Amino acid sequence: MKKIAFIAFLMISFSSFAQLERKLENENQPVDLIFHAPRHINILTVEPLDKKSMHFAIMHTFGTLNGGIENLFGLDNGANIQFSFEFALTDKLSAGISRSSRDKVYNLYGRYLLLEQTQNDKMPFSLSLAGGAGVNTSRYDFLPEPAPNFSERSSYFGQVMLARKFSEKISLQLTPMMAYFVDPRSVYQIEGDQNFYLALGLSGKFKVTDRSSLTLQYIPNLNSDLRSNVGIGWDVEAGGHVFQMYFVTSQALNEQYLLAGGNGVPGEEFRLGFNVNRIFAIGQKKRKY
Amino acid sequence: MRKLIIAYLFLLPSLSFSQSFQTESGEAIFLSKAPLNEFTGESDKLKGLIDLEKNLVDFYLDLNTLKTGIGLRDRHMRENYLETEKFPFAEFTGKMKSIPTLNPGVSYPVAVVGKFKIHGIERNVEITGNLQKTSSGNLELKAKFDILLGDYEIPLPKLVFYELAEKQEVSINATLKPKK
User: Fold this and answer.
1) Which of A187, B4, B47, B69 is 20 to 30 A from A48, comparing alpha carbons?
2) What does pTM read for this prediction?
């Protein structure tokens, strides 16, 4: 009996000697996919792009649903469409250009990932900064007064994205946001008339299946009487695309207009929105296989 | 009993001077050939051990180091398919069916049998490859094998079958140095 135990011990000690110890290459492996894409409904997320890749997003918001079937739940009433291209200069820094059809606004923006949440929780959250400048390129020839000049057409935004993946299923992001309009004219398609806007974006993701999530967005305005933005949606990963369908209270798509654009009453003036996200690699590596 | 202990003590030092080789460099590549999308994933962090005396072949790969060239695709791969936070490694432990006598500079076909584990699922596999001893005394191993995602309970959703292949063609290349 003793002998057998000893032989067993020998064998165990041999086999444990023999195999290599499994070691992670990076102890501080970052958490993957706090959100499905660099956009979450309307708000930019902490989700970084890898160097030499490009994120392309087409975003739409349609008319209000309350027109019913006659207007095909708002789809007849002219969509606001935004195209955006964001290029990753490094694994943390990216630069983007977007164009939304509402007031024909071009935005140039940058996004920088400052801190990244790790799986071992040494870094418990991710933190990104984003900021940009936009110009309204609509024609205002029809106005009796002189059309606004370039400076009067410009607007700026800045925001901080603080996000954490709490579990496999739940991720949240807090986004203090600000926007500044040099000359917020009433002819612009915004409801606000002040120059400076402050808001706090809240984004939530609840993973329902491996590849789809329930999404939420709430952006209370902190220094204006404008209604707050409310959105609820559904994200689906399909191959290389991330589709985002949602109901939201504003047609605004870029950051400045999200804060100054005004919102309808949730439930009554919901609009259908739809984003398509795709990441492209620029300068693909040569295949070695 | 005492004999056994003595035998064990004799065996111990022989371990450190054994015919054991450990990876100096190792790469693993997988190829996914789906109707609409063909892509590869690569890692140069393959770690392994070949012991010719004890006939042990032991390899593992930190799946977090696999790169497909598109960051978001890597994230989807880690998060939705391989679930690397729960199952970070792909592992193989087994032995050669027969150990060839290695003459330097000649490549010998070898077959290994053992257990391959990925996504928390372990299966018995047989893999064939080529083993060569270089003039400097290193071992070079090349092998190719297929992995069916379904075998390892990695689900392939209907929506993406045209972008991701059920059959992943894996090839590994490793250079192993004698262990001191």
Assistant:
1) B47
2) 0.80
